[in-house]
Design a protein that fits this description.
The complex is a heterodimer.
Chain A: H1 2-17, H2 25-45, E1 55-61, H3 74-84, E2 89-91, E3 94-96, E4 98-104, H4 109-121, E5 127-131, H5 134-147, E6 151-154, H6 158-162, E7 182-185, H7 189-201, E8 208-212, H8 217-222, H9 229-235, E9 239-241, H10 254-262, E10 267-271, H11 274-286, E11 293-297, H12 303-307, E12 317-320, H13 337-348, H14 355-372, H15 379-387, E13 390-393, E14 396-399, H16 407-410, E15 413-414, E16 419-426, E17 430-437
Parallel strand pairs in A: 1-4, 1-5, 5-6, 6-7, 7-15, 8-9, 8-10, 10-11, 11-12
Antiparallel strand pairs in A: 2-3, 12-16, 13-14, 16-17
Helix pairs in contact in A: 3-14, 4-5
Chain B: H1 2-18, H2 43-46, E1 49-52, H3 56-78, H4 81-106, H5 115-131, H6 136-158, H7 163-182, E2 193-194, H8 197-200, H9 206-213, H10 217-245, H11 247-257, H12 259-264, H13 269-295, E3 297-298, H14 300-303, H15 306-320, H16 326-342, H17 347-363, H18 367-376, E4 386-389
Helix pairs in contact in B: 4-10, 4-13, 4-15, 4-16, 5-6, 5-7, 5-13, 6-13, 9-10, 10-11, 10-13, 15-16, 15-18, 16-18
The chains are: A alpha/beta, B mainly alpha.
Chain lengths: 454, 394
């Protein structure tokens, strides 16, 4: 065996050694080494350019990938924002130019954490802004908390943002810690639960509800037996059929549909990603399951999701966090919600979407905070300014530390009003959302009553 | 036997002619004098030759490499945070790439499921440091070893498959692990969890680094992570080099070139493959644990991301040159430069990555390094043994 091995070894070596002769290898190596070294070392020796102090805002959003519809209006909003502050921001006696550094999370939490770190370390931003889904807000907020950089986030219900970032997510309030540098404004589960149940109470049903909750940030929070839909529905006399957490991008929903049929569900609710809802709804129609009401979070925020359903999308209902009918004005440009939506449609030839208002409001809050922060570049002072925020924005009033939240979340979360609406077909295949319930925020006008799915 | 010796002599002659002037000598040469003649009775014929592995290039590389490593170790002392930050990324991607390279490039185990071990290492680390006071650095090692242990049952399943089926099998296994971890409610289930800031700061030596460099805690933490990343990355490179220089390396090369032929001459294929699979799982698991200690937040979709931890890694290895140690070094530089300068172009960046990978596969299937290495006979980490004539013996 040993000799055998050696023989094998020798033929092998000689064979491969034969053709390996190069005269010029040294010069090639030299070139490669120099190139490699200089590439690796250039940032070290790069001259440090002392420029005038610029206020830097970092902004992370999912510009590409499956979550891209959330960031569709980013360019428009940021363009608007730059126009509004082109003469700089006056703090004390000094006027500073403001720069926005945007980064794409590619709808990927790993990438989101990485670009957040880049913004903090390389761009040395003064304030981090981040929007759209826990998959984007949570990794960015976590990095900011570690790096002690103030961060304002939005467009994610507060529970997945707050509880989903705890070291002990099952621990409950005493074990849950609040955060020192990261602040969030949006609505919470309790709001969407009241909005949905208010909408359902407008129509006569058998009070049998089918729930579709995936195993992701939102789904786990919505379906939670302690803090989610189940306890509230129970109290209001609804019977919930929850076939359990399914994985996102499921192909077949027959098990769920059969369970709902068996329980004679007339109401469907849940928080699904758009492609899953499309699959579910098409299969439900095929199987002859047609509930009276279908109120879905996240799945049908954008008109394009309805258009893929053809006529079957009519009267599907959803939470409405912002619409052109919201009676609010931008503190930055003075534009009303309607004017902002119209400007967007004019600039992009696209229908308005809900994130427009919130991304705009994010920049409103940022400027308001920076104006009130006494010293530029002092993270603690900036945080104090965030805490003291009391601003009327295009999505409504934003103020942290309010009573409408449980005590453990009060410090870091501010709530904005939430209402409910139904998608209605208008001229052919186009959909428009009509606000059908405003009991949770009477200031926002309704456009009609609830209609059962035909 | 005698035919064999004739062949050796013929080769040696060829070698001698092709070596410049035929006098490559020097005391530092690695030589295995006459070891081939053992018990064969033809010692006189063979003692004219010796087997070398080091080349002039490789000796220069050894010196330059040592200096480079020295500089890299001291980097946090003089470089800005940005560079340290970027190097952490480069190191862990390179470490993952070298592990995959050993697996696919040398053993022929083309796995697209290595994210299983990244995720496993990461989740085990989170589990350990959130339930006990274990130091994260020890947890990294422990997580890696446990991930390696879990590679055993995984291997028993996927090794029943071959080629494309093996690739799909590994991916399926990694999805299985993702779904399993997504059910662990105490680690956040599908939502994921973040480490408490105070926990992420409890690393061995952090106070010492803080006072040594005079920096705040989060920077000291990054410096420690930088060093660990450097150690893991160098460890992966050295591991591959040592393995390939050993007799196991020859067995691996034989398996790669023809499994059947290797088996026929007595290589225990199953054992070799299993061994490599488990060792790369340990390496991948430790790197995965480090990555998520750095990110301080985990979710199943992120930790078991096929795109980040396998597709990008395959890109690095394929672009650079599969089956070479130098390849991933080149590949990671290309990947890093592209990501730094082009990621801002969104979808176009991904299209460009794909196009480049296809172009390299079509026109330079050996990768960038393979192309140059074939053309100019470059070898930074020589694995071949070259038979040379012993002039002094004459």
């Amino acid at each position: 065996m040993t000799t055998n091995d050696k023989r094998e070894l020798s033929t092998f070596d000689i064979d491969s050694g034969l053709f390996r002769r190069g005269i010029s290898r040294r010069c090639v190596l030299k070139g490669a080494a120099t190139a490699g070294l200089s590439a690796a070392a250039s940032p070290v020796f790069a001259p440090y350019v002392q420029a005038a102090r610029v206020i830097k805002l970092g902004y992370v959003s999912p510009q590409t990938g499956p979550l891209a519809p959330f960031a569709e209006s980013d360019n428009f909003i940021i363009g608007n924002f730059k126009e509004a502050i082109k003469s700089g921001l006056k703090i004390g006696n000094q006027t500073y130019p403001v720069e926005v550094v945007t980064k794409d999370s590619q709808s990927n939490p790993n990438r989101a954490a990485q670009v957040a770190k880049d913004l903090i370390v390389t761009d040395k931003i003064d304030l981090m802004l981040v929007a759209s889904t826990p998959e984007t807000t949570n990794p960015v907020s976590t990095q900011c908390e570690i790096e002690e950089v103030p961060c304002i986030s939005t467009v994610a219900p507060w529970q997945p943002w707050f509880i989903g970032r705890q070291a002990n997510p099952r621990g409950g309030p005493p074990a849950w810690k609040d955060f020192n540098y990261t602040y969030h404004f949006f609505w919470g589960l309790e709001d969407v639960i009241s909005v949905f149940t208010n909408m359902w109470s407008q129509l006569a049903t058998n009070k049998s509800v089918g729930g579709l909750f995936p195993n992701d940030g939102d789904g786990n929070a919505w379906g939670d037996k302690q803090f989610g839909f189940p306890p509230v529905l129970d109290k209001l006399g609804y019977k919930l059929t929850d076939p359990g957490r399914y994985q996102n991008l499921t192909d077949i929903f027959f098990a769920q549909i059969n369970a709902f049929k068996e329980a004679k569900c007339e109401v469907i609710t849940g928080v699904m990603i758009p492609p899953d809802f499309t699959t579910f709804w098409k299969q439900a129609m095929q199987q002859g399951f047609r509930p009276k009401i279908a109120s879905l979070g996240k799945a049908i925020l954008f008109p394009v999701a309805l258009e893929t359903l053809g006529k079957n999308g009519n009267n599907l209902s959803s939470e409405v966090w912002w619409s052109p009918n919201h009676p609010f004005k931008s503190s930055l440009t003075g534009m009303s919600a309607r004017a902002l939506a119209d400007a967007y449609t004019q600039a992009t030839k696209k229908q308005w979407t809900q994130p427009i208002g919130f991304v705009h409001a994010l920049f409103e809050v940022a400027i308001d905070v920076l104006k009130r922060a006494p010293t530029l570049g002092d993270a603690k002072a900036t945080v104090e300014a965030i805490k003291a925020t009391n601003l009327n924005t295009v999505v409504g009033p934003i103020k942290w530390g309010q009573e409408n939240l449980p005590p453990f979340a009060r410090k870091n979360v501010a709530k904005t009003p939430l209402v409910g609406g139904q998608w209605r077909i208008k001229d052919g295949n186009k959909y428009d959302i009509v606000i059908t319930d405003n009991k949770t925020a009477p200031a926002i006008p309704v456009g009609g009553g609830m209609q059962a799915i035909g | 036997m005698s035919v064999h010796i004739r062949f050796l002599e013929w080769c040696a002659n060829l070698c001698r002619r092709s070596v410049l002037g035929g006098d490559v000598i020097g005391p530092s040469h690695d030589h295995v004098d006459a070891s081939l003649s053992h018990g064969s009775g033809v010692g006189t014929a063979l003692s004219k030759f010796r087997v070398e592995t080091a080349t002039r290039t490789s000796r220069i590389v050894l010196v330059a490499g040592s200096i480079l490593i020295f500089v890299l170790v001291l980097l946090p002392a003089f470089a800005g945070r940005t560079l340290v930050q970027e190097m952490i990324f480069v190191f862990y991607m390179l470490g993952l790439a070298q592990c995959w390279n050993l697996l696919a490039g040398y053993t022929g185990l083309v796995s697209v499921g290595q994210q299983a071990f990244v995720g496993m290492g990461a989740y085990l680390l989170f589990f350990m440091i959130s339930t006990s006071d274990i130091d994260p650095l020890i947890a990294i090692v422990a997580a890696g070893l446990l991930a390696g242990a879990l590679a055993l049952p995984t291997a028993l399943v996927v090794f029943r498959l071959r080629g494309a089926y093996f690739a799909i099998g590994t991916w399926v296994m990694s999805e299985v692990y993702r779904l399993v971890w997504a059910q662990v409610k105490s680690l956040g289930g599908g939502t994921g969890m973040s480490l408490a800031t105070s926990t992420t700061f409890q690393i061995f030596g952090i106070e010492w680094i803080k006072s040594l460099f005079g920096v705040k805690t989060s920077i000291a933490r990054d410096i420690i992570i930088y060093w660990v990343a450097l150690v893991l990355c160098l460890g992966a490179v050295m591991l591959i080099y040592t393995v390939l220089r050993s007799r196991y390396g020859l067995a691996l090369a034989a398996i790669r070139d023809s499994e059947r032929a290797a088996e026929s001459i007595g290589v225990d294929i199953f054992k070799m493959k299993l061994w490599v699979y488990m060792v790369t799982a340990i390496g991948t698991g430790m790197i995965g644990a480090l990555i998520y200690l750095h990110k301080a937040r985990i979710s199943p979709d992120a930790a078991f991301s096929v795109l980040d931890w396998t597709a990008n890694v395959i890109f690095i290895v394929v672009i650079g040159g599969i089956g070479t140690i130098e390849g991933p070094l080149v590949g990671v530089i290309v990947f890093y430069v592209m990501q730094t300068y082009l990621a801002g172009f969104g979808t176009w960046y991904l299209i460009l990555l794909g196009t480049l990978a296809i172009a390299v596969m079509l026109f330079a299937p050996q990768g960038i390094w393979g192309y140059f290495s074939n053309r100019y006979g470059l070898e930074l980490f020589p694995l071949r043994r070259i038979l040379r004539a012993n002039h002094r013996d004459r």
